[in-house]
Amino acid sequence: MDIARYLDTIDRLCSRPFPARHGWSDVGRAGPGYWTAELAAGGGEEDGDEDCGGRAVEQLEAYREGIAQRLDERLGTRSPWSTLTLQVRMARGEEIPEPWGSVGVLLDEMSLWQASDSDRWVAVGVAACGEPEDFRLFAVVTEIDPP
Protein backbone atom coordinates (compact mmCIF):
# COMPACT_ATOMS: atom_id res chain seq x y z
CA MET A 1 0.00 0.00 0.00
CA ASP A 2 1.45 3.36 -1.04
CA ILE A 3 0.08 5.28 1.95
CA ALA A 4 1.89 2.91 4.32
CA ARG A 5 5.14 3.49 2.41
CA TYR A 6 4.66 7.27 2.51
CA LEU A 7 3.94 7.18 6.24
CA ASP A 8 7.08 5.11 6.74
CA THR A 9 9.08 7.81 4.96
CA ILE A 10 7.54 10.51 7.18
CA ASP A 11 8.25 8.42 10.30
CA ARG A 12 11.89 7.98 9.27
CA LEU A 13 12.24 11.73 8.70
CA CYS A 14 10.71 12.44 12.11
CA SER A 15 13.35 10.29 13.81
CA ARG A 16 16.44 11.24 11.76
CA PRO A 17 18.82 13.97 12.80
CA PHE A 18 18.72 16.94 10.46
CA PRO A 19 21.66 17.47 8.11
CA ALA A 20 24.24 20.16 8.86
CA ARG A 21 24.11 21.69 5.36
CA HIS A 22 21.56 22.47 2.68
CA GLY A 23 21.46 19.93 -0.12
CA TRP A 24 19.74 16.84 -1.41
CA SER A 25 18.98 13.67 0.50
CA ASP A 26 17.63 10.29 -0.51
CA VAL A 27 14.07 11.71 -0.40
CA GLY A 28 14.45 15.33 -1.52
CA ARG A 29 15.80 18.67 -0.28
CA ALA A 30 17.18 18.93 3.21
CA GLY A 31 19.07 21.31 5.41
CA PRO A 32 19.66 22.39 8.97
CA GLY A 33 16.35 21.84 10.75
CA TYR A 34 14.31 20.33 7.89
CA TRP A 35 13.62 17.53 5.47
CA THR A 36 11.38 17.75 2.41
CA ALA A 37 10.32 14.58 0.63
CA GLU A 38 8.68 14.12 -2.72
CA LEU A 39 6.48 11.13 -1.96
CA ALA A 40 4.81 10.71 -5.35
CA ALA A 41 4.34 12.38 -8.73
CA GLY A 42 1.38 12.68 -11.10
CA GLY A 43 1.24 10.71 -14.31
CA GLY A 44 0.86 12.10 -17.79
CA GLU A 45 -1.38 11.04 -20.62
CA GLU A 46 -0.83 7.43 -21.54
CA ASP A 47 -2.22 5.33 -24.36
CA GLY A 48 -4.29 8.24 -25.67
CA ASP A 49 -6.23 8.55 -22.42
CA GLU A 50 -6.60 12.31 -22.11
CA ASP A 51 -8.02 12.08 -18.58
CA CYS A 52 -5.11 10.06 -17.20
CA GLY A 53 -3.43 13.21 -15.85
CA GLY A 54 -6.63 14.30 -14.09
CA ARG A 55 -6.97 10.89 -12.46
CA ALA A 56 -3.33 11.07 -11.36
CA VAL A 57 -4.00 14.38 -9.61
CA GLU A 58 -7.08 12.87 -7.93
CA GLN A 59 -4.92 9.94 -6.80
CA LEU A 60 -2.32 12.28 -5.27
CA GLU A 61 -5.09 14.14 -3.43
CA ALA A 62 -6.46 10.80 -2.20
CA TYR A 63 -2.99 9.83 -0.94
CA ARG A 64 -2.66 13.21 0.79
CA GLU A 65 -6.00 12.75 2.52
CA GLY A 66 -5.18 9.15 3.51
CA ILE A 67 -1.86 10.25 5.00
CA ALA A 68 -3.58 13.16 6.77
CA GLN A 69 -6.19 10.91 8.34
CA ARG A 70 -3.51 8.60 9.73
CA LEU A 71 -1.42 11.52 10.97
CA ASP A 72 -4.55 12.94 12.65
CA GLU A 73 -4.73 9.68 14.63
CA ARG A 74 -1.05 9.88 15.57
CA LEU A 75 -0.44 13.60 16.04
CA GLY A 76 -3.86 15.10 16.67
CA THR A 77 -6.09 17.14 14.46
CA ARG A 78 -4.39 18.80 11.52
CA SER A 79 -4.39 22.50 10.89
CA PRO A 80 -5.12 23.44 7.29
CA TRP A 81 -2.57 26.04 6.29
CA SER A 82 -2.60 28.29 3.25
CA THR A 83 0.71 29.60 1.98
CA LEU A 84 -0.87 32.71 0.47
CA THR A 85 0.54 34.95 3.20
CA LEU A 86 4.00 33.46 2.63
CA GLN A 87 3.70 34.15 -1.09
CA VAL A 88 2.68 37.77 -0.42
CA ARG A 89 5.49 38.26 2.08
CA MET A 90 8.05 36.82 -0.35
CA ALA A 91 6.70 39.01 -3.16
CA ARG A 92 7.31 42.01 -0.88
CA GLY A 93 10.92 40.91 -0.47
CA GLU A 94 10.74 39.31 2.96
CA GLU A 95 13.17 36.47 3.56
CA ILE A 96 11.27 33.34 4.63
CA PRO A 97 13.36 30.62 6.30
CA GLU A 98 13.64 27.18 4.76
CA PRO A 99 11.79 24.94 4.38
CA TRP A 100 8.89 27.40 4.47
CA GLY A 101 10.24 29.54 1.63
CA SER A 102 10.29 26.56 -0.72
CA VAL A 103 6.96 25.31 0.59
CA GLY A 104 5.44 28.71 -0.10
CA VAL A 105 6.56 28.49 -3.72
CA LEU A 106 5.54 24.86 -4.27
CA LEU A 107 2.29 24.48 -2.36
CA ASP A 108 -0.82 26.63 -2.14
CA GLU A 109 -2.08 24.82 0.92
CA MET A 110 -1.11 21.96 3.18
CA SER A 111 -2.09 20.05 6.26
CA LEU A 112 0.10 20.84 9.25
CA TRP A 113 0.71 19.10 12.59
CA GLN A 114 3.05 19.71 15.47
CA ALA A 115 4.24 16.47 16.98
CA SER A 116 3.43 16.47 20.68
CA ASP A 117 6.43 14.32 21.61
CA SER A 118 8.98 16.57 19.88
CA ASP A 119 9.47 20.07 18.55
CA ARG A 120 9.01 18.91 14.97
CA TRP A 121 6.35 20.02 12.53
CA VAL A 122 4.94 17.73 9.85
CA ALA A 123 3.28 19.11 6.71
CA VAL A 124 1.76 17.31 3.73
CA GLY A 125 0.47 18.84 0.52
CA VAL A 126 0.13 18.48 -3.24
CA ALA A 127 2.11 20.87 -5.42
CA ALA A 128 0.16 22.01 -8.46
CA CYS A 129 3.09 22.66 -10.77
CA GLY A 130 1.24 23.24 -14.04
CA GLU A 131 0.33 20.18 -16.06
CA PRO A 132 -1.09 17.15 -14.18
CA GLU A 133 2.07 15.15 -14.86
CA ASP A 134 3.99 17.81 -12.93
CA PHE A 135 1.91 17.53 -9.74
CA ARG A 136 3.80 16.22 -6.70
CA LEU A 137 2.86 14.94 -3.25
CA PHE A 138 5.24 16.43 -0.68
CA ALA A 139 5.93 15.91 3.00
CA VAL A 140 7.95 18.30 5.16
CA VAL A 141 9.42 17.53 8.56
CA THR A 142 11.03 20.44 10.34
CA GLU A 143 11.90 21.89 13.71
CA ILE A 144 11.54 25.41 12.30
CA ASP A 145 8.24 27.00 13.33
CA PRO A 146 6.01 28.16 10.48
CA PRO A 147 6.42 31.90 9.94
Low-confidence stretches: 44-50
Count of alpha/pi helices: 4
Number of domains: 1
What's the shape? Answer: globular
Structure description:
By secondary structure, the protein is of the alpha+beta class. It has one domain.
List keywords for this structure.
36% helix, alpha+beta, 147 residues, single chain, seven-stranded antiparallel sheet
Brief account:
With 147 residues, the protein is an alpha+beta fold. 36% of the residues lie in helices and 25% in strands.
Any chance you could write out the topology, listing elements then pairs?
Elements: H1 2-15, E1 23-24, E2 29-31, E3 34-41, H2 52-75, E4 79-82, H3 84-91, H4 100-106, E5 109-114, E6 121-127, E7 136-142
